[in-house]
Amino acid sequence: NNRIVGGEDAPDGRWPWQVSLQRFGSHVCGGSLISREWVIVSGMCGVTPLNNRIVGGEDAPDGRWPWQVSLQRFSRIILHPNYDSDSSNNDIALLRLSSAVTFTEHIRPVCLAARNSVFNTGTKSWVTGWGAVKEGVLLPFPQTLQEVEVPVVGNRQCNCLNGVSTITDNMICAGVQAGGKDSCQGDSGGPMVSKQGTKWIQSGIVSFGFGCARPNRPGVYTRVSSYQSWINSHIPSD
């Protein structure tokens, strides 16, 4: 299968927190529902215009599933104050929805990694999105949500592979040495999750990479656990 890159169609209802940020009806970025009123995305996706809308329900871009729900527009954008678009450090933003959503079997929030969480090298992780299936090749019709499993790559090794000083402590990497599995353009802002016991925990936000699924070029994600204090300062616990 040549999806997300190197992934496959996601089973119905498996990733109920996945949302699509859309501009004029077209998918632009992924995101994660973290409460009834808030979505977490990358900083790059958070700087998009307020006339965008957010759609949830997993197969949102195509709109063919009965549980698709339009989350309308978002009413507020909180971009991390230290977001650096050049280095992608602090690549995180919060979007407040214009109205609260009702949780269902197919629309639920994801748990965020706690402060000081550790995701060891090799930790099995899943990345989801409607992005390109390879560099420059869009996800074909019917645009079914894609999923791919990738292991965590330690920051030291990731720095060696992607360039010294490229990776900060606010980032987490994942990928396979041989390449062939990765997030790609259009997946930005979406979640990387790992299963801990019976719970799925979001460890990363799709941030950047050097191409897509290239050998020895793991993808780079915003490390969610580094931002728990910042997130909690803006979002009251439900």
UniProtKB/TrEMBL annotation:
Q: Which residues form the Peptidase S1 domain?
A: 4-236
Listed InterPro entries: Peptidase_S1_PA (IPR009003), Peptidase_S1_PA_chymotrypsin (IPR043504), Peptidase_S1A (IPR001314), Trypsin_dom (IPR001254), TRYPSIN_SER (IPR033116)
Q: Which Pfam families match?
A: Trypsin
- Specify the domain of life of the species encoding this protein: Eukaryota
Q: Does the keyword Disulfide bond apply?
A: yes
- Name any Gene Ontology BP term: protein maturation
Q: Where in the cell is it found?
A: Secreted
The GO terms this record gives for MF are: serine-type endopeptidase activity
Q: Which CDD domains match?
A: Tryp_SPc
What GO CC terms are in its UniProt record? extracellular region
What Gene3D superfamilies does the database record attribute to this sequence?
Answer: Trypsin-like serine proteases
UniProtKB keywords? Disulfide bond, Secreted
Please indicate if the UniProt record lists Ion transport as a keyword: no
Q: PANTHER family in the record, alphabetically?
A: SERINE PROTEASE 56-LIKE (PTHR24253:SF171), TRANSMEMBRANE PROTEASE SERINE (PTHR24253)
Put simply, this protein is called Si:ch73-182e20.4
Q: Which organism is it from?
A: Tetraodon nigroviridis
